[in-house]
Each structure stands twice: as structure tokens, then as C-alpha cells.
Amino acid sequence: MKLTYSNLGGSGNGIGIGNGNGNGSKMSLGKSIKMYLTIFIATTCIYMVLYQYHISQEPFAGSEVVKPVAWGVVGRFVCQQWTICKPPLYIITPTYRRPEQTAELTRLGYTLKHVANLLWLVIEDANKTNPLVAHTLDRIGVPYEYMVAPMPEKYKQTKRAKPRGVSNRNRGLQYLRQHATEGVLYFADDDNTYDISIFEQMRYINKVAMWPVGLVTKTGVSSPIIQNGKLVGFYDGWIGGRKYPVDMAGFAVSVKFLKERPKAEMPFKPGYEEDGFLRSLAPLDNSEIELLADECRDVLTWHTQTKKNAPAQALNRTRYRDTNLEFIDKLLVRP
Fold this sequence. Notes:
Elements: E1 3-4, E2 16-17, H1 22-57, H2 62-65, E3 89-95, H3 101-112, E4 118-124, H4 131-140, E5 144-148, H5 153-156, H6 166-179, E6 184-187, E7 193-194, H7 197-202, E8 208-210, E9 213-214, E10 221-227, E11 230-235, E12 251-254, H8 255-259, H9 273-279, E13 289-291, H10 292-296, E14 301-302, H11 325-329
Parallel strand pairs: 3-4, 3-6, 4-5, 8-13
Antiparallel strand pairs: 1-2, 6-12, 7-14, 8-12, 9-10, 10-11
Helix pairs in contact: 3-4
């Protein structure tokens, strides 16, 4: 094979291959390019078809599939055509001012951020809302309602154990009765630890569901006792004459079931808050209680609690004037 050069300014013959016929060579080159383009397009189409098939076989994460588009009416969700609506969850979290407050709300908030169709009811034991708490909730980005519900004065003055969180939780129940129509409520304290799978499991309950909670009392766990698939009792380090000796993190309730019992609430009785609330949901038979976490054979929530920290000492504003410490000092919680 040889290269034949022709006059660029001639009759149109250019650089040719073979017998020197430039036009024939150009036609061959054009056919080759067309063939390669055809192969490329066909290969791309086959790849896209196979890719789409692969994607269709993969399970979608809840956060990808379920997106609440409107929160204008609590308990009702407007879903776009390509989304799949799930029943809403209402997470009631009592909180109070302390050095660990921001850290614990942050930890819980970023757990809840992985859960779809959720409204976080954060209720503080205070007379007015705290801008630092509101800022923290805004930064996390979970849909929320921030309210206050102070403990009644008569309980604050007692030297005995105080019914902490009761006003907060009852305020949350009041909110749901006013605004929610469906879904599930769950009391999630901000000092606990949660496996996000428990939220998806509780989402579809009909009445009441229960499951084990780790790191509770001397037994290390508080749990329903299941035998042959039936609830036959409760395992807890302190029974105390309770009908339902369970931890606050170990049960969830259907909103519809709650609203059918308008008098159901949590009592101001330390140690008996869970038991009193569950009793107020009567009539409720043990056979109606759904058993989650692999029929109570797994632990998906833990009563971890955070180490108590002493209040931060006052900042020397003369020594550290015009430094970043002045900004950080505004983020520290003191009594």
C-alpha cells in the first residue's frame, strides 16, 4: 500500500490511499466512521437498558422514595407522582436546659434526619422558647415544631422525685389530638440511642407496639417476654406493681388509637409514667400489642444517657475580648 499525493488545488482529488483515487478513499473513510458511530450508539443503548434493569431490582432507601412535599396540614402529606407515601411518624421529645442539651438534640436530630415522613415535636420544660434550641433545630433540618410546657410549680417544689418530662409529653399528645389524623407517635428522649430501623417498623402498627430497650436497670434490658409468639409477661429490673413495666423508649402508639381515647395521658407519678399512660389506653388486651424488633429478639433502642457535666466557668471577657471565644461562649448552656 502506498500514499499518493495530489494537487490540493486540483479537481477535488486529495490525499488518497491505494490506487490514488481520493474520492474512493473518502467514501471508504465515511463508511468506516458511520460504522463506528453505529456500533457506539448501539453499545450505549444496550448499556443504558442493562443499567435501568439493574436499578429497578435495587430496593430504594426510604429517604429516596418518600418525600413529604407539604406540611401545611399536619398528618396529611401531598405526594408527587413519583413518590410513595408512608404513614407519618410523630416523635415527641421532651427536653430541658442543661450543658448537654444542644449535644443531645444534635445527636438525636441527625438520627431522625434519616427517617422519612416525620415531624419532630420538641417540647421544652420552660416558660419560653430558647433561641439556641431553635437555631440547633433549624441547622439540623428535620421538620419540627418547637413548644414549651413547664412542669407545674407544685411538682417543682417537692423534695421527692420529680415527674420529669410529663408536661412535655402531654403537650405533645394535645398537639396530635388537635392536628394529626393518622400515623404513629413515639416518645424519643434526647439522651437515648436509636437504630433507625425501629422507626420503619413502628410506622405501620395498628394500635400499640412494644420491643426491648437495652441498658435499663440491673437486668441490662427491659423487654416483653414472648413465648410461642405470645406476650406472656415483662422482664425488667424494677416491676414495682406495674401492669406495663416497660421503658419509655420501648413502645409506640397509633395516632388513631390515641384519638379514640380522648382521656389518655401520662400521669405525674415518677416511675409510673409509662405504665399510667398505657393503662389510660384501655381497653387494650395483650394480644393486641404488636411485637417488633424480630418479635422482641433484637435490641434496637438503648437508654444510654449522657454523663452529667458541670456548668462551664464564666469567660474572662477582658482577657479574651475580640476573640472567637466570645462567640463560643454564647453557645454554652449554663443554669
